[in-house]
Design a protein that fits this description.
118 residues; mainly beta; 11 strands; 0% helix; globular
């Protein structure tokens, strides 16, 4: 019953900003690392950013470093992705993900569409 509800996607012009939210349920959110991935049509799903369970450690794809910021609020079971200086190549479905460390199984949200276009 792991579930993610992603929101915040939409249409934005190049150079604009969006903040994505992912509200999690069905597991102990505060003890799990969370990640944002994205998938564009015809392309492989790629890691965008990750954040440790306590929010101390973060990592980013080279393509988004300096523009995107991942954060989390464990009291709200929510992970965020602040996206600034958006480019057309950022257009994709963005999904949040966690991993069951006992089994290695990935758990995925349904995704929210981000479209960057003039």
């Amino acid at each position: 019953q792991v579930q993610f509800v992603e929101s915040g996607g939409g249409l934005v012009q190049p150079g604009g900003s969006l903040r994505l939210s992912c509200v999690a349920s069905g597991f102990t959110f505060s003890r799990h690392r969370m990640s944002w991935y994205r998938q564009a049509p015809g392309k492989e799903r790629e890691l965008v950013a990750g954040i440790s369970s306590a929010g101390v450690g973060t990592n980013y794809a080279d393509s988004v470093k300096g523009r995107f910021t991942i954060s989390r609020d464990n009291a709200k079971n929510t992970v965020y992705l602040q996206m600034n200086s958006l480019k057309p190549e950022d257009t994709a479905v963005y999904l949040c993900k966690t991993v069951d460390l006992l089994t290695g199984r990935d758990y995925w949200g349904q995704g929210t569409q981000v479209t960057v276009s003039s």
